[in-house]
């Protein structure tokens, strides 16, 4: 996760929001519905065709990638579903479904007339696809043979990989050392490519145990450990880290 998305171990960032409602405003439910429909209609799924004009790939990973690519100041300024809206809107523009000018014009139109009805749409085949996706989901596990470089009990170091838009490596684990707790069976993808960060093809995933005193010296409670599931691309031997 980019710095603005995962703030573990940082202090002095102001009060923590205690909002517990899933949806604060009605429009947020629509954003959630749009995202869910996009995932259900994503082209990488092996499901029967529908009348939808949505023909590209969209996953949870793409949503996170889009939200975290926001300017950090905008990221902190916007609420949760506003970040979703930014990521989804940017995706539709990037993929050619709508132009930025068309989106701006429609936005201004609804600002001028907030009571204007949205277009009436709906198709049973699409509705059924969404329900099917909610039941079955989309597993990141792949039937691919991979080699495992580490075993339970191995001491490992965590890389400090470059990340442009999105990373699955928390900042506070970079350049730290831990112990392999679990070697997960099989190979896993992230459902979208993270570029220079290095997550793309299916690879092993390890659960690594860290001692908080090593992560935040002199500023932790005692008698507990921190566990993180990490893609193998982020994990290396201590010798490789010091080379």
UniProtKB/TrEMBL annotation:
Stretches assigned to the Nitrile hydratase beta subunit domain: 139-236
Molecular-function annotations in GO: nitrile hydratase activity; transition metal ion binding
Domain Nitrile hydratase beta subunit-like N-terminal, chain residue ranges per copy: 1-120
Transmembrane segments: none
Keywords, ordered alphabetically: Lyase
Stored Pfam families: NHase_beta_C, NHase_beta_N
Catalytic activity reported: an aliphatic primary amide = an aliphatic nitrile + H2O
Signal peptide boundaries: none
Enzyme nomenclature, EC number: 4.2.1.84
Zinc is among the record's keywords: no
Gene3D superfamilies (UniProt xref): 2.30.30.50, Nitrile hydratase, beta subunit
Protein function: NHase catalyzes the hydration of various nitrile compounds to the corresponding amides.
Family the entry assigns: Belongs to the nitrile hydratase subunit beta family.
Record-given protein name: nitrile hydratase
């Amino acid at each position: 996760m980019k710095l603005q998305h995962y703030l573990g171990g940082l202090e002095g960032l102001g009060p923590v929001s205690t909002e517990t409602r899933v949806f604060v405003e009605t429009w947020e439910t629509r954003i959630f519905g749009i995202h869910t429909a996009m995932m259900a209609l994503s082209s990488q799924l092996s499901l029967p065709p529908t009348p939808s004009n949505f023909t590209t790939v969209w996953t949870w990973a793409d949503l996170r990638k889009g939200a975290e690519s926001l300017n950090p100041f905008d990221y902190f300024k916007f609420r949760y579903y506003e970040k979703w809206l930014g990521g989804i809107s940017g995706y539709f523009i990037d993929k050619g479904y709508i132009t930025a000018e068309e989106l701006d014009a429609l936005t201004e139109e609804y600002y001028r007339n907030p009571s204007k009805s949205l277009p009436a749409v709906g198709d049973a085949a699409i509705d059924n696809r969404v329900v099917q996706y909610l039941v079955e989901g989309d597993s990141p596990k792949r039937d691919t043979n991979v080699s495992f470089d580490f075993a339970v009990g191995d001491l490992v170091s965590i890389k400090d990989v470059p990340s442009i838009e999105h990373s699955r490596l928390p900042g506070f684990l970079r350049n730290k050392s831990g112990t392999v707790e679990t070697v997960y069976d099989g190979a896993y993808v992230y459902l979208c490519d993270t570029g220079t960060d290095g997550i793309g093809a299916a690879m092993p995933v390890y659960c690594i145990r860290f001692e908080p005193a090593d992560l935040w010296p002199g500023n932790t409670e005692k008698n507990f450990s921190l566990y993180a599931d990490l893609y193998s691309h982020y994990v290396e031997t201590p010798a490789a880290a010091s080379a």
